[in-house]
Amino acid sequence: MSIGALSVVMSHEEVLVIKLRMWQMRINEELKKKRFNVPVHLGLGTEALVVAISSIVSNKDNLLLTHRNAAFNLVRANDPRSVVREYELKSEGVSFGQLGSMNLSNPEFGVVYSSSILANNISVACGFAFSRQISGGDTITVALTGDGAMEEGAFYEGLVFAKSHKLPLLLVVDNNNYSMASSILQRRCDINLESFCQSIDISYFKLQGNDVTNYVSKLSEISKGLRKNMSPIVVEANTILLNQHAGPTPGWPTDPMTVDLSNGLVIAENSSDPIFVLKARYGFDTYYHFENMVMATKLDFGMQ
Length: 304
Description:
- The protein is of the alpha/beta class.
- It has one domain: Thiamin diphosphate (ThDP)-binding fold, Pyr/PP domains (Rossmann fold), CATH 3.40.50.
- It is 42% helix and 12% strand.
- The strands form two sheets. Strands 2-1-3-4-8-7 form a six-stranded parallel beta sheet, with helices on both faces.
- The two termini are 28 Å apart.
- Residues 4-8 have low confidence and may be disordered.
């Protein structure tokens, strides 16, 4: 049975979640071998969110990312091998080997900006959204940020500016509880994002559960409203990162986190893993048949 035939069972987005997990885990294996001279921030555990966001962003929209942009660039690229070539700093890379990883963009496919500076992309996103508002049309600007960026002034200033000027901006906050190695509890007080949004009259939505089908449905509805009403919206998603902050996982002999492609694509046997969510939905036999088919379609990254 071909992957195309199996897509009758699974949606395109579900298939892409599985493929994205495989691509990331293959890159993780190469990180263990110290293949790349640039830091790579994988997004294992975020695949459902990444695929859902990508599904609502056209190539004419603006997508602005953070240093953790690997998963998004892999999904958005016409050929994910071009992202690997970028990590090798080769001219065949998505940005001709000039940007590396933490600032990797791909304007041709909607990724107009990525920033390694915490919360920096929010201010830039406001500029893009303001420009689109002036020029007209129904295109939107989508910016990704995290719970760490909520501690920066640019986060609040950007949202106030966006609301004041009624900008077509969707700000997605990926709340995984960690900024590098420190948890929210270790570094700051709790911030009620929903209450803050209410205080300046910005619509707020929350995503949780790692169900890509549910995420696509909700984000599609949200993006349609944004294109029509042209007023900023905040979406908060709870995720659990299944890899280290950067580099390979495991990264050292006593590393408690274990990621190995030889163990299959499921990393955590609970809903923190969007791949497990698919396995639970379709059942052991159906899911693993599909995983095996995806794993058999070897995309040559030039990896030994």
